[in-house]
Design brief:
By secondary structure, the chain is α+β, with helices and mostly antiparallel strands. Helices cover 26% and strands 33% of the residues. It folds into 5 domains: 3-181, 3-Layer(aba) Sandwich (Rossmann fold); 194-278, Elongation Factor Tu (Ef-tu), domain 3 (Beta Barrel), CATH 2.40.30.10; 297-362, 2-Layer Sandwich (Alpha-Beta Plaits), CATH 3.30.70.870; 374-480, 2-Layer Sandwich (Alpha-Beta Plaits), CATH 3.30.70; 484-596, 2-Layer Sandwich (Alpha-Beta Plaits), CATH 3.30.70. α12 packs antiparallel against α14.
């Protein structure tokens, strides 16, 4: 195929703006899939994606389209997720494309992730094609949405396509725009091979399947290749493209998107962003990859059955191949035994990882309270990173603690602006700016502690704005704060997984709320369970779970009272002994309760 008739593009949008439905219509319009095999959300091949109605993994597909000029074109679509937690997938897709379709819901208008995705595409110099979707809905506000897009792009005469992905209107016009406005790929077929690895998957028979975009040269079967990141050498076993099912080809040329297998058995050998080149004639320098996002949220993942530790380890190694933003390392807990300290991009990312590990690999898991990374400076000036609340040193040895702050962009209806400002203040936000996108839409900018927005901020935002608010954030650095470790004690013993680092002036309220919640979740034992919240050596709140009553004198009918007293005394001694040696059973709901406080 002539490179001038190839177009590489992706679709970006805020979550639930109809991106997956638009991809379905593009596949149908270009007849890339048999109607008998078609199903909604065709590119979302995970059950979890289809159940939740969100895209989690980027996926690539090749389409052929005969345009109005009579020429046949090859369109390579790389689908992207819409949620802020999966922005790394968006970054990878944009790096492999020359253009992007920016989808905006006609009823919702420009939202926070729309702004973030536009900025990512603009920074990479891609051709941006705005499209207003769902124009057929009764609540569609096309003119207002058009004004917001013009304001975002700072261009009053920008061409905007009106479409309804559900009905299929506007799709043909979009395809023609892609051919006219997205530039064809460049590259020399005879130059040294230079491919960007933008994704990978694991197959039990073929090993690692490497998704590549060729920028220079030609890739053929049997060609010896080198992964420039680690210098490992392999030989290409299979080449192919996705249509959307894998289809083998003899070669891939500069400008094309496809996959290769080379009998790579170790998932860690392939890194997203690496460059593949020919061993005998390497390219002078690797492709400019993309900076991997650092995990912002950390939590412990432990197998519910300690016998499944190695199964969990193998599952995580394979999972990390399909999710480059997921990181893990072994850790030990007194309460839960051996497990892993895992890094995530956000709470939704953490939830998706948990569900995928349990479903795809059949391992029952226990998760600890999520936390962010704090920087602690000692009196000697030594700065250390604290990933777990239990690792926080004694208060007497700390000169200062710094916590990560993010630049939070909140888009909401104008009438809910006051409620959103109150919520931001409650979360220790620092006001930065207000911008009106239109008469009814406001953009608020705050600097906020990352720890404050992890738990329930997004839920409360949606509640206060009746579902019309949206939220995006990016890390801006560390700032000093007054923080303390809030410990939970069960019968006088610290329960590490329930500990957290909180703001000093919020410790009492959070401790009191947490022990009250735990009182209703921890099952009753044969002895009384004391639940206490403590900061250092100071107990700030306490609740007790009453012991299960056993009627030991039920068999006594009348007679001397001393007989009953002997039984009661023996029962009390037994309960003391059980309290001393007994362990308190902590259900998974107790760990989740920490998130709700």
């Amino acid at each position: 195929m002539d490179r001038t008739r190839i177009r590489n593009f992706c679709i970006v949008a805020h979550i639930d703006h109809g991106k997956s439905t638009l991809a379905d219509r593009l596949l149908q319009t270009t007849h890339s899939v048999d109607e008998r095999k078609f199903r909604a959300q065709l590119l979302d091949d995970m059950d979890l994606e289809r159940e939740r109605g969100i895209t989690i993994k980027a996926s690539a597909v090749r389409m052929r389209y005969r345009a109005q000029d009579g020429q046949e074109y090859v369109l390579n679509l790389i689908d992207t997720p819409g949620h802020v937690d999966f922005s790394f997938e968006v970054t990878k897709s944009l790096q492999a494309c020359e253009g992007t379709v920016l989808v905006v819901d006609a009823g919702q208008g420009v939202e926070a992730q729309t702004v973030a995705n536009y900025q990512l595409a603009k920074d990479r110099g891609l051709a941006i094609l705005p499209l207003i979707n769902k124009v057929d809905l009764p609540n569609a506000q096309v003119e207002r949405t058009r004004e917001e897009i013009q304001h975002l792009l700072q261009s009053p005469d920008v061409r905007i396509t009106l479409a309804s992905a559900k009905e299929g209107t506007g799709v043909s016009e979009l395809l023609e725009r892609i051919i006219q406005e997205v530039p064809p790929p460049t590259g020399d077929l005879s130059a040294p091979l230079s491919c960007l690895v933008f994704d990978s998957a694991y197959d039990a028979y073929k090993g690692v399947i490497v998704f590549v975009r060729l920028f220079e040269g030609t890739l053929r079967r049997g060609l010896p290749i080198t992964l420039m990141g680690n210098g490992l050498r392999f030989e290409v076993q299979e080449l192919g493209v996705f249509k959307p099912q894998p289809e083998t080809v003899q070669e891939l040329r500069a400008g094309e998107v496809g996959y290769l297998t080379a009998n790579i058995r170790n998932p860690h050998d392939v890194i997203a962003g690496d460059t593949v080149t020919e061993t005998s004639r390497p390219t002078p320098k690797p492709r400019p990859g993309f900076r991997p996002l650092k995990p912002m949220v950390f939590a412990g993942i432990y197998p519910a059955n300690t016998q499944e530790l190695e199964t969990l380890r193998a599952a995580m190694e394979k999972f990390a191949l399909t999710d480059a933003a997921f990181q893990f390392e072994p850790e030990q807990s007194d309460a839960l035994g051996q497990g892993f300290r895992c890094g995530f991009l956000g709470l939704l990312h953490m939830e998706i990882v948990q569900e995928r590990l349990e479903r795809e690999y059949g391992v029952a898991l226990v998760l600890t309270t999520p936390s962010v990374v704090f920087q602690v400076t000692s009196h000697q000036g030594v700065v250390t990173e604290v990933h777990r609340p239990h690792d926080l040193p004694e208060a007497s040895t700390i000169r200062a603690i710094a916590e990560p702050f993010v630049k939070a962009v909140i888009l909401c209806p104008a009438e809910t602006m006051g409620a959103m400002m109150d919520l931001a203040i409650q979360k220790r936000g620092v006001y930065r700016a207000t911008e009106y996108l239109s008469e009814t839409r406001v953009k608020l900018t705050y600097d906020m502690p990352l720890a404050e927005i992890l738990i329930d901020f997004y839920d409360r935002l949606k509640s206060l704005t009746r579902g019309y608010g949206s939220f995006d954030y990016e890390l801006v650095g560390y700032r000093p704060a007054k923080l303390v470790r809030l410990d939970i004690l069960l019968n006088g013993r610290i329960c590490e997984p329930l500990s957290s680092i909180v703001a000093k002036d919020q410790a009492y309220e959070k401790g009191k709320a947490l022990v009250e919640r735990l009182k209703g979740l921890i099952p009753r034992q044969l002895f009384e369970v004391a639940i206490q919240a403590a900061v250092g050596s100071h107990i700030i709140a306490r609740e007790s779970v009453r012991a299960l009553a056993k009627h030991v004198t039920g068999k006594c009918y009348g007679g001397d009272i001393t007989r009953k007293r002997k039984l009661w005394e023996r029962q009390q001694e037994g309960k003391k002994r059980m309290k001393q040696f007994g362990n308190v059973e902590i259900p998974q709901e107790a760990f989740l309760a920490v998130l709700k406080i």
